[in-house]
UniProtKB/TrEMBL annotation:
Coiled coil: none annotated. This is UmuC domain-containing protein. It comes from the Eukaryota. PROSITE patterns: UMUC. One of its GO terms (molecular function) is DNA-directed DNA polymerase activity. GO terms for biological process: DNA repair; error-free translesion synthesis. Pfam families: IMS, IMS_C. Residues 15-260 form the UmuC domain. Transmembrane segments: none annotated.
C-alpha cells in the first residue's frame, strides 16, 4: 500500500526537451552551407561521431569506423571534429536563445546538444487566456507585458505526432485538464522549433511531457526535425493502461535516463539470472538480449526493496532502489536547473589508446591538459570589471570564482594476469591537492602557468598516485579544478543572474586565445544522473579537503558513462572501454 502512495506522479509541470539533429554536422553545415546537400561525416579518432541526414540516407551511422564509412559512401565529406571549440560555442548560443525564449529561466543543458525547458508558467498563463467555446482560434501569448506578442493556434488539437499515435477519447476529468496543457505545450514547442530554425539555422527533435525523464525519452519517437507529445491517460482508467506505462514498458531498461550502464547491467543480470551477453556490434553497450522495463516491472517480487538489494552493492547511494522504481514508472521530480553563473567544476581529460610508458610522455600530456585547463578556467571564470563603461581601453578582468582544489585522475590498465590475459577494470584513481594561487595570475601566459603547475603540483601528485617509477599503462588522464568558491562581491543573486553576459564575455576571452588544435578532447559530456547522484563518504570529503589520496570506487562519479575508447589488439576495432571485457571474451571463444 505504501508503495502505491509513493508512486504519485506530479503532472503539474510542462517540460520540453530539445535534442539538436546531427549536432556537430549541423554546426559545420552552418559554417559552410554548401555542405548541407552532401553527405557529411564528423570524425574523432577513427570514428564517425556523427553525420548529417544525407549521409545517414546513404548508409552512414553514428559511431561507425571511418574505414567502414569510406567503403559505404566513398564520396562523403569528412571533417575533423576533435577541436570542440566551435561545438561548445554553438551550443552556448543555442542554449541562450532557448533560455531567453521562455519565462522561467529554467533551462538546463545536457552535454552540448540537449536542453530542457520548464514551460509550466507559460502554459499556466495561456490556459487562463483560453476561450473554452472556441479553442480552435486561440492565441498563445509570449509576453506578459505585451498581449499582442505571440501566435495563433488551434487549441483543440495537439500539434505534431503523439504517443500513442491515436489518443483515447474518453478521459478522466484530471486527464482532460492535463491533455489541454499538453496541447498548449505542443504548440509552444512547434513555435520554439520554428524560431530555432529560422533564426539560428538549427533543427531539433523535441519531446513534450510533464517531467524531464518523459520529455527526453518521447522526443526520440519521431526523428529528425519533429516533435512528440505523450498524451493522456497518464493514469490507468478502468482496463485502460496509462500511456506512460505503455510507453516505458517498451524500452530497454538501460535506455531509461538515470539508469546508467552499470545499474542496467546489474538489473539485467538479475532478471535473466545470468550475465547478459553483449552484442557483437558493441555500439554504446547495447546488449544482445533486451531486458525491458516491462520485464523488470513485472518480475516476481520486484519493487523498491528488491531493487535496493540488487543495486545496493554497486556502491550506489542508499535509496537507489526506490529511485529506480520511480524512474521505471515515469516519475521524475527533478527540477530543470537554473543557469549557473559559474560551473561547479572544470575539467580536461584525454584518453589514450597507446600506452603512456615514459615519464616524458606523461609529463607532456600533463602539460597539454594543464594548459587547456587554465585556458578554460580563464574563459569560464573571468568577468570584466566595470562593465558598461566604455573607456576604450582593455577592460580589467577579475575572477568570479576560485577553484580551491586541483584533482588529478588516471585510469590505469591493470597488468596481465598469470594467464597472460589482462583483467579489465575501469576504475579511476585520483588525488587532490589545494589549487596553487599562481594559476590565477593573468600577467603570465597560460603555457608558462601550466609548466609551473606541472612541475610544482601535477608531477608530485602523479608520483604519489603511481609509486612505480616507469611503465605506467594509463588509458586516461583527467585534470580538474573543483570546489569552486564564488567571489563574495559578485555572489549576490548570482544564480542565473546574467548568463548572457557571461557568454558574451567568454566569446571575448576566446578571441584573445589562439586556440591551437585540441586533439582527443572528450570533456563536456556530462551524464544525466537523476538517479545516481553519488554520495561521498565523510572520509572522502575529508581526505579531499586535506589533499589526501582518494581512491575512486567502482562507482564512477560525475564522469560515469562518459566513454573512453579502447582498441582491441586482435581485430583493431575500437569500442567504449566498458564493452571491452565482453569483446575480449568474444575472441576467447574463438570469435
Ligand atoms: N558525440 C560525441 N561522442 C559520442 C556521442 C556524441 O562526440 N560518443 C557528439 C556528436 C554529436 C553530439 O555529441 O553531434 C550529440 O550527440 P547525439 O547522440 O544527440 O547525436 P546527433 O545530434 O549528432 O544526432 P541525432 O540527430 O541522432 O541527435
Ligand atoms: Mg543528443
Ligand atoms: Mg542530437
Amino acid at each position: 500500500m505504501q508503495r502505491v502512495r509513493r508512486l504519485h506522479r506530479n503532472d503539474e509541470r510542462l517540460i520540453i526537451h530539445f535534442d539538436y539533429d546531427c549536432f556537430y554536422a549541423s554546426v559545420v553545415e552552418n559554417e559552410n552551407p554548401a555542405l548541407k546537400s552532401v553527405p557529411l561525416a564528423i570524425q574523432q579518432k577513427q570514428i564517425v561521431v556523427t553525420c548529417n541526414y544525407e549521409a545517414r540516407r546513404r548508409g552512414l551511422r553514428k559511431l561507425q569506423l571511418i574505414t567502414e564509412a569510406k567503403k559505404v559512401c566513398p564520396d562523403a565529406v569528412i571533417v575533423l571534429g576533435e577541436d570542440l571549440t566551435r561545438f561548445r560555442d554553438a551550443s552556448k548560443v543555442l542554449y541562450n536563445f532557448l533560455r531567453e525564449s521562455i519565462w522561467s529561466g529554467r533551462a538546463e543543458r545536457l552535454g552540448f546538444d540537449e536542453v530542457w525547458l520548464d514551460c509550466s508558467d507559460m502554459v499556466d498563463y495561456n490556459m487562463g487566456l483560453l476561450n473554452r467555446h472556441d479553442l480552435a482560434h486561440s492565441f498563445f501569448c509570449l509576453s506578459k507585458d505585451d498581449p499582442t506578442i505571440g501566435f495563433e493556434y488551434d487549441a483543440s488539437n495537439v500539434f505534431g505526432p503523439t504517443f500513442p499515435s491515436k489518443g483515447l477519447l474518453q478521459l478522466s476529468e484530471q486527464d482532460v485538464g492535463l491533455r489541454l496543457r499538453l496541447v498548449l505545450g505542443s504548440h509552444l514547442a512547434r513555435h520554439l522549433r520554428h524560431e530555432l530554425e529560422s533564426q539560428k539555422g538549427y533543427t531539433a527533435t523535441v519531446g513534450i511531457a510533464t517531467n524531464k525523464l518523459l520529455s527526453k525519452l518521447v522526443g526520440n519517437v519521431n526523428k529528425p526535425k519533429n516533435q512528440t507529445t505523450i498524451v493522456p491517460p497518464y493514469h490507468p482508467l478502468g482496463d485502460v493502461e496509462a500511456t506512460v506505462t505503455q510507453f516505458l514498458d517498451g524500452h530497454d531498461i538501460g535506455k531509461v535516463p538515470g539508469i546508467g550502464f552499470k545499474l542496467a547491467h546489474r538489473i539485467r543480470g538479475y532478471v535473466l539470472g545470468r550475465d547478459a551477453a553483449f552484442s557483437e556490434g558493441l555500439v554504446y553497450g547495447a546488449t544482445k538480449e533486451s531486458v525491458t522495463v516491462l520485464d523488470v516491472r513485472t518480475y516476481p517480487g520486484m519493487g523498491p526493496d528488491l531493487l535496493e538489494e540488487i543495486l545496493g552493492t554497486t556502491g550506489a547511494p542508499r535509496g537507489i532502489g526506490g529511485k529506480i522504481w520511480e524512474l521505471i514508472h515515469g516519475i521524475d521530480d527533478t527540477e530543470v536547473g537554473m543557469a549557473k553563473r559559474v560551473p561547479s567544476q572544470i575539467s580536461q581529460e584525454d584518453s589514450y589508446m597507446k600506452y603512456l610508458h615514459t615519464f616524458d610522455e606523461v609529463k607532456k600530456q600533463l602539460q597539454l591538459l594543464g594548459e587547456r585547463l587554465i585556458r578554460r578556467m580563464q574563459m569560464d571564470l573571468l568577468e570584466d570589471e566595470d562593465e558598461g563603461e566604455d573607456t576604450g581601453s582593455e577592460p580589467r578582468r577579475r575572477w568570479m570564482a576560485h577553484p580551491r582544489t586541483l584533482r588529478l585522475t588516471t585510469r590505469p590498465r591493470p597488468p596481465p594476469g598469470p594467464d597472460g590475459v589482462r583483467a579489465r577494470t575501469f576504475n579511476r584513481i585520483s588525488r587532490s591537492a589545494p589549487m596553487p594561487n599562481y594559476v590565477f595570475n593573468l600577467n603570465d601566459p597560460a603555457t608558462a602557468l601550466a609548466t609551473r603547475l606541472v612541475d610544482e603540483a601535477l608531477v608530485p601528485m602523479f608520483r604519489k598516485l603511481h609509486h612505480e617509477k616507469a611503465g605506467w599503462n594509463l588509458s586516461l588522464i583527467n585534470i580538474a579544478a573543483t570546489n569552486m568558491a564564488e567571489t563574495a562581491a559578485e555572489s549576490k543573486d548570482s544564480a542565473g543572474r546574467d548568463i548572457g553576459r557571461m557568454f558574451r564575455r567568454q566569446d571575448e576571452v576566446l578571441k584573445d586565445f589562439r586556440i591551437t588544435d585540441e586533439p582527443d578532447c572528450v570533456d563536456d559530456h556530462p551524464n544525466y544522473a537523476t538517479a545516481v547522484v553519488p554520495q561521498k563518504s565523510p572520509e572522502q570529503i575529508r581526505s579531499e579537503a586535506q589533499g589526501e589520496v582518494l581512491v575512486a570506487d567502482g562507482w564512477d562519479t560525475e564522469d560515469s558513462d562518459r566513454e573512453a575508447w579502447e582498441r582491441c589488439e586482435f581485430c583493431q576495432s575500437i569500442m567504449p572501454a566498458y564493452a571491452f571485457a565482453a569483446h575480449r571474451r568474444f575472441h576467447e571463444l574463438g570469435g
